[in-house]
């Protein structure tokens, strides 16, 4: 695959699909080769399908993207890739993703189909409706977690699902804030809902989402384990969330949430320590 088609798939966004692997990690089945393979297969399925949705979004928004300060350089908006090529690529990704999903589990197919339908509705309608737009984005992250659980046939805590929803809601609100910062006066021309999203409202939404994430994650560590050691990880979660909030509130360059996260050493360190602490806890349990 050449560079322009690869950029059309937005590989930087693939990191979101790590949520598919959450059930594998927290069910402690990552030592079982069969389940690891199915979880990785589900990850690849979701990567293919979500990339197809990104292609669809670019096809729908091609005219708006041509007026955007940075999105005009995307392969479709810049003319590097034709609509015909984009449609073929999208169809191939959908077929590939669903075919592999069918080989894993019919429940995975159901989850992916739900994600596809939801995002088509988002691209056509929901992204124009304030609050509903970011809610749908957050639901997409929850579907990633459910897909991962369906792939390996394990129980996933309701607290994990709620935590995933709120942290995704926080990221979505952060993205809207950075969009307003980057587009400034022309923000409403590109995305009409940005006219309703004031900075104060988005900051409040981020704060509430972070609070709910902290509460639901804390309850998960307290209620789902018979020992207190998992509660140690709350420290890294709280630090990471507060650091992300600081970065989003202070950013005036309009960087995307994933760019803020991957470029900040303190935040990356908290994520690393979070992972290391869970490895130690799993070894002790």
UniProtKB/TrEMBL annotation:
It is found in: Membrane. Keywords: Membrane, Transferase, Transmembrane, Transmembrane helix. Coiled coil: none annotated. This is Prenyltransferase, UbiA family. It comes from the Bacteria. One of its GO terms (molecular function) is transferase activity, transferring alkyl or aryl (other than methyl) groups. GO terms for biological process: glycolipid biosynthetic process. InterPro entries: Prenyltransferase (IPR039653), UbiA_prenyltransferase (IPR000537), UbiA_sf (IPR044878). The keyword Metal-binding does not apply. It comes from Thermoclostridium stercorarium (strain ATCC 35414 / DSM 8532 / NCIMB 11754) (Clostridium stercorarium). It is a multi-pass membrane protein. Its main location: membrane. GO terms for cellular component: plasma membrane. The chain crosses the membrane at residues 36-56, 86-118, 156-174, 229-245, 266-284.
């Amino acid at each position: 695959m050449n560079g322009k088609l690869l950029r059309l798939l937005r590989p930087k966004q693939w990191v979101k699909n790590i949520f598919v692997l959450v059930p594998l990690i927290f069910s402690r089945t990552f030592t079982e080769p069969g389940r690891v393979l199915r979880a990785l297969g589900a990850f690849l399925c979701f990567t293919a399908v979500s990339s197809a949705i990104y292609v669809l979004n670019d096809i729908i928004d091609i005219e708006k993207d041509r007026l955007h300060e940075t999105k005009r350089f995307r392969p479709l908006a810049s003319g590097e890739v034709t609509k015909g090529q984009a449609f073929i690529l999208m169809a191939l990704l959908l077929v590939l993703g669903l075919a592999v999903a069918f080989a894993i589990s019919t429940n995975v197919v159901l989850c992916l189909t739900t994600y596809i339908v939801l995002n088509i509705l988002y691209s056509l309608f929901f992204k124009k409706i304030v609050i509903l737009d970011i809610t749908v984005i957050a639901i997409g992250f929850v579907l990633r977690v459910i897909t991962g659980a369906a792939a390996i046939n394990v129980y996933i805590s309701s607290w994990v699902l709620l935590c995933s929803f709120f942290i995704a809601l926080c990221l979505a609100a952060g993205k809207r804030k950075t969009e307003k910062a980057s587009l400034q006066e022309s923000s409403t021309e590109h995305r009409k809902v940005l006219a309703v999203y004031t900075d104060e409202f988005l900051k409040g939404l981020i704060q509430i989402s972070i609070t709910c994430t902290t509460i639901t994650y804390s309850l998960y560590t307290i209620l789902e384990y018979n020992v207190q050691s998992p509660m140690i990880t709350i420290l890294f979660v709280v630090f990471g969330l507060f650091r992300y909030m600081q970065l989003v509130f202070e950013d005036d360059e309009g960087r995307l949430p994933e760019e803020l996260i991957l470029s900040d050493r303190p935040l990356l360190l908290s994520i690393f320590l979070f992972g290391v602490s869970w490895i130690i806890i799993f070894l002790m349990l």
